[in-house]
Amino acid sequence: MPRDEGFAEYAAVRQQRLYRQAYLLCGDRDKAQDLVQSTLLKLYRAWPSVQRADNVDAYSYKTLVRTFVDGERRWRRERDWFRRPDAARAPRSDDLRMTLLAALAELPAKARAVVVLRYWEDLSIEQTASALGCSTGTVKSHSSRALAVLRDRLGDDFHALVTP
C-alpha cells in the first residue's frame, strides 16, 4: 500500500496546480478536469518509476502537456474542420483576460503549450523544451509564431495585455 499512499498524498497536494495549468492549456473547465484525471491516471500507472525521477513535478507537468497535445491532435484529426485564413479578429472586450484566453484557444495545441509554459509558468527556453520533449529551436520558433498570431488576433488589445 505505500504506492497508493504516496501517490494519494502527491495527488492531493498537486491536483489544484495541475488543474490550473490544464485550464490555461484548454481554456475549458470540464476539459481541464478531464485532462488532470487522465494525467493522474498515467502518473499512477507509472508511479514506482515516477518516484525515482529527479523532479516529480516536472515529470507530471510533462505528462500533462503531452496528454493535452496528443488529445488535441486526435480531436483535430477526428473532425472535418478547417480555418479560414481571414478569420475575424476577437471582439474587443473589457475583460482582457477572457479576450486573451479566446485568442489562446485559436492557437494549435503545441504553440499554446509553448506560450503557457514560457509566459505563464515563466519557464526558460530549455525547461520548456524539456517539458515538451523538443529542441530549444522548436520552442523559439513556436513561441515566435504564436506571439505573431496573438498580436494579429488581439490587435490593440495585445499591447494592453503585455505592458504593465
UniProtKB/TrEMBL annotation:
Residues 15-77 form the RNA polymerase sigma-70 region domain. SUPFAM superfamilies: Sigma2 domain of RNA polymerase sigma factors, Sigma3 and sigma4 domains of RNA polymerase sigma factors. It comes from the Bacteria. Keywords: DNA-binding, Sigma factor, Transcription, Transcription regulation. Residues 98-148 form the RNA polymerase sigma factor 70 region 4 type domain. InterPro entries: RNA_pol_sigma-70-like, RNA_pol_sigma-70_dom, RNA_pol_sigma-E_actinobac, RNA_pol_sigma70_r2, RNA_pol_sigma70_r4_t2, RNA_pol_sigma_r2, RNA_pol_sigma_r3/r4-like, WH-like_DNA-bd_sf. It holds the Pfam family Sigma70_r2. NCBIfam families: SigE-fam_strep, sigma70-ECF. Belongs to the sigma-70 factor family. ECF subfamily. This is SigE family RNA polymerase sigma factor. The lineage of its organism: Bacteria, Bacillati, Actinomycetota, Actinomycetes, Propionibacteriales.
